[in-house]
Amino acid sequence: MSRSRWLQVPRLIVNSRSTLVALSLMLCLPIYAQTLEFTEAEVTEEDGVFRIKVSAIIESPPDYIRYILADSAHIYRLSPSIIESEVLPSSTADEKQVRTKLLCCTSLFCREVERVDIVRMLKSGDFEAEIIPTLSEFKSGKASWKITPMDDASHVVYEAYLEPDFFIPPVVGTHLVKQHLLEEFTTTFIRIERIASFNAQRDKSAEYMLVDAAMKTLKPPCKQNTSASLQ
Fold it and tell me: Which residues contact 83 (CB under 8 A, 6 or more apart)?
């Protein structure tokens, strides 16, 4: 292969990578896979009350995560068990009511479950949600999302308790529900990271393209010929 052909190979590789990045952004498919670092993931049960705690380091700034959690109309994106979601009218500006229909399935039983939560965003930027028992198939329930910045990443902690108001087969059924809840919320964290990371990368790419376009457009003026005399 001639020297000129060898010199063309790196350019082809760079062009191919640029094309792949552009296609990835257009098709909303990230070209990289990240491994989520869970710091805790546990579900316990006592006297019919399930307690959940999941925490992880998410490689995304807090604002991107808050945006996802505040988007209640599209909350179904975060869980494969949410088959319906709806934001109900609320008389208070700093809170909203969110209705979801869940598909609660194990190897022993499968049923649709309704719940309505009052969701609030706190001044700290964290979130809390409380179940309205009269509109839900739960006797009680409360959850919180705590988001702590860590440089360009975030430490996210989810804590909740749920008291179902429907029959769950004892022992084996309880064990399967605990397993189901653990899988659900670890999946939720993985989906949050994927969406947040993609949005962050998309914004960085858009910012880079704007800066690059500005650099090409706003070229410095040509130097004047200082030796020329004024007429």
Answer: 76, 101, 102, 103, 112
What is the CB-side half-sphere exposure of residue 161 using CA atoms within 13 A?
A: 8
Asked whether 120 and 127 are in contact (CB, 8 A), the reply is yes
Q: Specify the amino acid at residue 16.
A: S
- Residue recorded with tokens 């969110």: 98
Q: Rounded to an integer, what distance in angstroms lies between the CA atom of residue 196 and that of residue 79?
A: 15
| Domain 34-197, architecture per CATH | 2-Layer Sandwich (3.30)
Cα gap 152→58, rounded to integer Å: 9
Would the pTM of this model clear 0.90, i.e. be above it? Answer: no
Residue 42 has a pLDDT of 96
What is the model's pLDDT at position 170? Answer: 86
Sheet holding 37-46, edge to edge: 37-46, 49-58, 153-164, 138-150, 127-131, 110-121, 95-105, 82-88
Question: What is d(CA 175, CA 147) in angstroms, rounded to the nearest whole number?
Answer: 29
Q: What is the mean pLDDT of each run of 10 residues along the chain (231 residues)?
A: 42 38 38 69 95 95 94 91 91 88 86 95 95 97 97 95 92 90 94 91 63 45 41 35
